[in-house]
UniProtKB/TrEMBL annotation:
<feature type="transmembrane region" description="Helical">
    <location>
        <begin position="25"/>
        <end position="47"/>
    </location>
</feature>
<dbReference type="GO" id="GO:0009506">
    <property type="term" value="C:plasmodesma"/>
</dbReference>
<protein>
    <submittedName>
        <fullName>NDR1/HIN1-like protein 1</fullName>
    </submittedName>
</protein>
<keyword id="KW-0472">Membrane</keyword>
<dbReference type="InterPro" id="IPR044839">
    <property type="entry name" value="NDR1-like"/>
</dbReference>
<dbReference type="GO" id="GO:0098542">
    <property type="term" value="P:defense response to other organism"/>
</dbReference>
<feature type="domain" description="Late embryogenesis abundant protein LEA-2 subgroup">
    <location>
        <begin position="80"/>
        <end position="183"/>
    </location>
</feature>
<keyword id="KW-1133">Transmembrane helix</keyword>
<dbReference type="InterPro" id="IPR004864">
    <property type="entry name" value="LEA_2"/>
</dbReference>
<dbReference type="Pfam" id="PF03168">
    <property type="entry name" value="LEA_2"/>
</dbReference>
<dbReference type="GO" id="GO:0005886">
    <property type="term" value="C:plasma membrane"/>
</dbReference>
<keyword id="KW-0812">Transmembrane</keyword>
Length: 213
């Protein structure tokens, strides 16, 4: 007669005892993992983070010119952006923040990096990066559209933010989330004071930005 539990069907030998022990250990480990995941889910549902709020406070335009016939755009814009963390119990790590300007879905300035920072509960932070593009090639139809907008006296430029953030709840820190923000900047062109002076470009109003996380 063999001692194998498969043959004898006996649960008193070493084989069956080990199997029973392994099942108990596996069940406890599985229950522990489920409990931890359940706790994390409950905490997340109770303290569900609200995405940060962004506002374009100002845009100072120092240059915005298209050269012909090369269709090269040179621009210098200093933007002032405020961001607020609306959460009472959740902090936000901004690990990467890149700011750039676009016109009709084409990026017209290289990205300017904002240094990483941590934003506490209900904190408000202000940035004022320069967005500079020198001889950036644009499509012919975009160059024509810019000239038409300048002639009409108004132009819409979008200030965009691309970044990565993490949420902080107590000592727990989440993984990375992609942050994408779009802020409309309505600019007006006014005639210069003197003859031959370049037009003065003014920012019209504070705008609320759309935020995707």
């Amino acid at each position: 007669m063999t001692s194998s539990c498969k043959v004898s069907g006996c649960c008193d030998d070493d084989c069956c005892k080990r199997r029973r022990l392994y099942r108990v250990i596996f069940a406890w480990i599985l229950a522990f993992i489920i409990l931890i995941l359940l706790i994390i889910l409950i905490i997340w549902l109770v303290l569900r983070p609200t995405k940060p709020k962004f506002y374009l406070q100002d845009a100072s335009v120092y240059a915005f010119n298209v050269s012909s016939p090369d269709n090269l755009l040179s621009s210098t814009i200093q933007v002032t952006i405020s961001t607020r963390n609306p959460n009472d119990r959740v902090g936000i790590y901004y690990d990467r923040i890149d700011v750039f300007a676009s016109y009709k879905y084409q990026q017209i300035t290289p990205a300017t990096a904002v240094p990483p920072f941590y934003q506490g509960h209900n904190d408000v932070d202000l940035w004022s990066p320069y967005l500079c593009g020198v001889s950036v090639p644009v499509a012919p139809y975009l160059a024509e559209a810019i000239s038409q907008d300048q002639s009409s006296g108004f132009i819409l430029v979008h200030v965009k933010i691309d970044g990565r953030i993490r949420w902080k709840v107590g000592s727990w820190v989440s993984g990375h989330y992609h942050l994408f923000v779009t802020c409309p900047a309505f600019l007006s062109f006014e005639s210069g004071k003197g003859v031959g002076d370049p037009p003065v470009i003014k920012f019209q109003q504070i705008s609320t930005c759309s935020v995707d996380v």
